[in-house]
């Protein structure tokens, strides 16, 4: 199995080397080296090296082989039981609307029922396959990014870690905020007594930043928009709980979680930097109906 990527050189990379193009596109150095050693680079269908100068409109062709990647093949078992809504698609990636209650990926060999199992079934007729990039907790709904080939997985990983790909969430939480906008900046680490949980200001805590904006209130609850600047485990859940505003329905951090049918956390928007491009795309997953029933939410 091989993967071929044909790329048109943009104006911004006119008269640059192939090496500069690959660096600009965030292709890992290890893979750049393997392309060079394997002589799998062509410019306008002629063999080229990483030192070759390219010009606007040239076609750069790269051929990838399984040994280039840590996870070259997608082996999720196909499960067509629950079709997944696709919000956005290119030749390299999908953004899907993950349902609450569905696992993002299987945890055991032979396991089915997850979002990636469902996508494996949906993509089979196109001879494409899903590759894991990031995950949402099982009870979280909303926009989730999935790669369609192993080439872009490390690129998307770097764009996520640098926050070039930006995620925005909505959550219904308990109580009111003294100010309608603000930032949580308490560092987050492992909970001192519960292995399942994280907490603020612990011995191993790391920097964590979350912006919030109050969008709506009811008698007892608040709907907040949340922007992540770091990606700590359970970051939104911990920051809100530590502030006295746990997310409604959170089984770890909301003492009244049993009164809610689900964790009321939704990944609303992804701002994407598209691989091998300077283009941006904004993709939104509409708020589910359960977020709009304020009369019921006020009773949770």
From TrEMBL:
Residues 92-242 form the Pseudouridine synthase RsuA/RluA-like domain. It comes from the Bacteria. It catalyses: a uridine in RNA = a pseudouridine in RNA. Keywords: Isomerase. GO terms for molecular function: catalytic activity, acting on RNA; pseudouridine synthase activity; RNA binding. The keyword Isomerase applies. The keyword Isomerase applies. GO terms for biological process: enzyme-directed rRNA pseudouridine synthesis. The active site is at residue 137. Pfam families: PseudoU_synth_2. CDD domains: PseudoU_synth_RluA_like. Its EC number is 5.4.99.-. InterPro entries: PsdUridine_synth_cat_dom_sf, PsdUridine_synth_RluA-like_CS, PsdUridine_synth_RluC/D, PsdUridine_synth_RsuA/RluA, RluA_PseudoU_synthase. Belongs to the pseudouridine synthase RluA family. Responsible for synthesis of pseudouridine from uracil. NCBIfam families: rluA_subfam (TIGR00005). This is Pseudouridine synthase.
